[in-house]
């Protein structure tokens, strides 16, 4: 009579490879089976949270350095998901050495993910070149980090699946459900921790380094503590040494991160950085403004204001729109106070409302000695009221027919997060705010280098029920090209002009107010010539941009 199969050790008491593939034998745990499963699922939770932080960190850094968040998010996440699939397949060959392999994967992921932000920021700061195709140069480095991170994240789940089955064999569906639940909940926590905890309190660089350290500690502790008997002595020594080295690298980088950021800022902006702060909205930097050096204001790495030629930009933006009634004026954006300065030069202005998304920029415009001198303390004028709000949401709640002039002083529409402020719906709200004879002026971007974007702005304003006229003003040809059109801090192809759209219910007249102040950089003759020059390069037939169908390039 054949002895029943139950006489052999049950599968739940065997290892698939024993001590790193040594054959058979029950896996000995330092804790009970239930506690062991809980610890593995807790490790899945933490690793998933760290993995999502790495993904979001790469997306955020790519968006900050290159702009166009939709493109950067699509490229980084699609490359990473593809690599996760490859990593899962590759992990199949490592299942016999699951504990050692998982420990190595977590050490590598902690190092790659933790240091990715600092390495990419360093390359950008000291090379300043993100041009070219995705497969070459620093952009290729971003793809390489996305691939490496995705490969390592993808290898985690198959190895964890093997480890949890070694503790207690269960049906595959139940094991997958347990791991997936821990993985998804961890991803939720990591996804919420990044924007609400890591980014505002620690910043991109320190946040990534601390995430890497947590990843290394949890991965190493799980393997060396729970699955220690599944490792050979040599594997244990190697894993301990690897984790010590990874933690030493991350700790050293965290200690030096402030010095690194200062050096990187000097490499990007020069040695004259006076103010560098992270507000709730963006990074704000001021350079110059002392000892006769021109003041520059950078927002998220883009030159927003240059003391060399900001007057040329702001006079062209404001003064043509002030030709007519201008008792009540609304400035959208313009938290630096420079557009408001030009508005207040006109007699008859009774009220100026400023809608700015970043309270930090407003505080800086009021308190920084150089910037407040440049804007002539315009934001402290009793006629000026400042509202810290999103311009789109603010317009939706404001009463109709309140303003004689609306000045849209916003970053150019090629920045993806700003496209709603250049949509047909947005200009429809602005039209509702205007009195019957009111005027709207829009900064539409660089006309020469981004003609389709500019003329899409014109087409969109027309679609909202306005009659329009376009004009452009050239910036200085030396040094930085200033204004919101400016791209990254250093680039070989600076925008050399600004394009504007003047709009009204009736055909607008692009002329200066004959009873108003005389701008230093603008005359009626120059404005007429700028209008003719713009018309010669019109791109006809472009459709308007809407909230559901934005048409601006990245």
Automatic annotation (TrEMBL):
InterPro entries: MFS_trans_sf (IPR036259), PABS (IPR030374), PABS_CS (IPR030373), SAM-dependent_MTases_sf (IPR029063), Spermi_synthase (IPR001045). Pathway: Amine and polyamine biosynthesis; spermidine biosynthesis; spermidine from putrescine: step 1/1. Spermidine binds at residues 314, 336. It catalyses: S-adenosyl 3-(methylsulfanyl)propylamine + putrescine = S-methyl-5'-thioadenosine + spermidine + H(+). The keyword Cell inner membrane does not apply. GO terms for molecular function: spermidine synthase activity; thermospermine synthase activity. Catalyzes the irreversible transfer of a propylamine group from the amino donor S-adenosylmethioninamine (decarboxy-AdoMet) to putrescine (1,4-diaminobutane) to yield spermidine. Belongs to the spermidine/spermine synthase family. This is Polyamine aminopropyltransferase. It comes from Streptomyces calvus. The lineage of its organism: Bacteria, Bacillati, Actinomycetota, Actinomycetes, Kitasatosporales.
């Amino acid at each position: 009579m054949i002895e029943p199969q139950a006489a052999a050790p049950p599968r739940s008491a065997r290892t698939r490879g024993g001590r790193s593939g040594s054959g058979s034998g029950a896996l000995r745990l330092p804790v009970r089976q239930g506690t062991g499963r809980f610890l593995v699922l807790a490790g899945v939770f933490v690793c998933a949270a760290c993995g999502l932080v790495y993904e979001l960190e790469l997306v955020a850094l790519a968006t900050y350095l290159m702009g166009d968040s939709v493109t950067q998010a699509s490229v980084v996440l699609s490359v990473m998901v593809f690599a996760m699939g490859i990593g899962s397949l590759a992990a199949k060959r490592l299942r016999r050495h699951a504990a050692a392999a998982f420990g190595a994967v977590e050490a590598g992921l902690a190092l790659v993910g933790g240091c990715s932000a600092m390495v990419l920021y360093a390359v950008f700061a000291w090379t300043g070149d993100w041009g070219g195709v995705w497969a070459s140069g620093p952009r290729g480095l971003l793809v390489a980090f996305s691939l490496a991170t995705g490969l390592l994240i993808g290898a985690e789940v198959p190895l964890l699946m093997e480890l949890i089955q070694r503790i207690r064999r269960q049906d595959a569906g139940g094991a997958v459900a347990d791991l997936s639940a821990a993985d998804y909940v961890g991803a939720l926590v990591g996804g919420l921790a990044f924007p609400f905890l890591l980014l505002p309190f620690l910043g991109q660089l320190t946040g990534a380094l601390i995430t890497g350290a947590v990843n290394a500690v949890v991965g190493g502790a799980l393997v060396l503590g729970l699955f220690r008997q599944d490792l050979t002595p040599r594997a244990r020594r190697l894993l301990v040494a690897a984790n010590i080295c990874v933690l030493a690298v991350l700790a050293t980088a965290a200690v030096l991160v402030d010095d690194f950021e200062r050096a990187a800022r000097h490499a990007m902006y020069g040695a004259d950085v006076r103010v560098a702060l992270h507000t709730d909205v963006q990074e704000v930097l001021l350079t110059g403004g002392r000892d006769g050096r021109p003041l520059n204001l950078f927002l998220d790495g883009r030159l927003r204001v240059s003391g060399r030629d900001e007057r040329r930009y702001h006079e062209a933006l404001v003064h043509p729109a002030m030709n007519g009634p201008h008792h009540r004026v609304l400035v959208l954006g313009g938290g630096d106070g420079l557009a408001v300065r030009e508005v207040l030069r006109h007699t008859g202005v009774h009220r100026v409302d400023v809608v700015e998304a970043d309270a930090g920029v407003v505080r800086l415009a009021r308190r920084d000695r150089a910037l407040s001198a440049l804007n002539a303390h315009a934001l402290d004028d009793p006629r000026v009221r400042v509202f810290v709000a999103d311009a789109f949401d603010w317009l939706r709640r404001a009463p109709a027919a309140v303003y004689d002039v609306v000045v849209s002083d916003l970053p150019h529409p090629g920045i993806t997060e700003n496209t709603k402020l250049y949509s047909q719906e947005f200009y429809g709200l602005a039209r509702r705010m205007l009195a019957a004879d009111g005027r709207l002026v829009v900064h539409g971007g660089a006309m020469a280098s981004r003609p389709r974007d500019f003329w899409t702005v014109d087409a969109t304003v027309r679609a909202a029920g306005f009659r329009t006229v376009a004009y452009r003003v050239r910036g200085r040809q030396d040094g930085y090209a200033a204004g919101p059109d400016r791209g990254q801090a250093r680039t070989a192809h600076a925008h050399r002009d600004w394009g504007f759209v003047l709009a009204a219910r009736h055909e607008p007249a692009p002329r200066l107010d004959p009873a108003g102040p005389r701008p230093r950089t603008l005359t009626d003759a120059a404005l007429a010539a700028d209008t003719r020059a713009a018309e010669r390069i019109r791109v006809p037939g472009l459709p308007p941009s809407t909230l559901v169908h934005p048409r601006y390039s990245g």
